[in-house]
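User: Predict structure, ligand zinc ion.
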Amino acid sequence: MKILYAVFLSLLLTACATTPSGDRRLMLVSSEQMSKMGVTTFQQMKTAQKISNDSRKKDYVECVSFAIINALPDQWRNKQWEVVVFEDDSANAFALPGGKIGVHTGLLKVAETPSQLATVLGHEVAHVLWRHGNQRISMQMLAQTGLQVADVVSQQSVEGSTGRQMLMTGLGLGAQVGVMLPFNRKHEQEADRHGLYFMAAAGFDPRQSVALWENMDKASAGKRQPEFLSTHPHPENRIEKLNKFMDKSLMLEKEARAKGLNPQCTI
Ligand SMILES: [Zn+2]
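Assistant: Predicted complex:
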């Protein structure tokens, strides 16, 4: 029994990995496999969903996306990223491991300026860099398989249709498979904070993040809430917390401008 327990513990420990801020978290899926799954999922979405043929929207979204990507740490900046605009009225966007970004045309009505769009994309990219999808999938796997760790760490457990559903919900794409699983508050706060730093380091105006979240709220008044908010709920006092990170963000923006980073993205 003691030996089994020790084996179990060591498996769990080796299954932990660190986030860019140095926290150890449970991650049962390898980064390579997460990337592979992200790429496959994105490919399926491109086949199943309508891609916008508005080249102005595509250029605009690419301009904002690549400005942020170019401000990421080297290992992420040097990846090959793909950005696709989907013809979809719901206000949503997502980023997947494997360097994929999807933006719905509906988001462009809520995010009124490049810096507001950069707020959402910075947030999404931060979810990927902090490997929140992996952590969510890991928790789901543990919940579903109990202590059958051997199964959990085997590749088969994230393949097949159950695996696909787990992956989609883990990556925040619940609407596509009919299972909404919101990111937890801790993940939302991390994505807000580091997303803000990323967009500011790209030369966007971090103060506009406040207007973006206000617009999201306005869009949810009365009608169905924006799809984004159903999978990315407000952490407590979101705007208050953003203001806590504003000094550092403004400094990053200033540094970016000094380096000549001043993205001019227009639609
Ligand atoms: Zn989020």
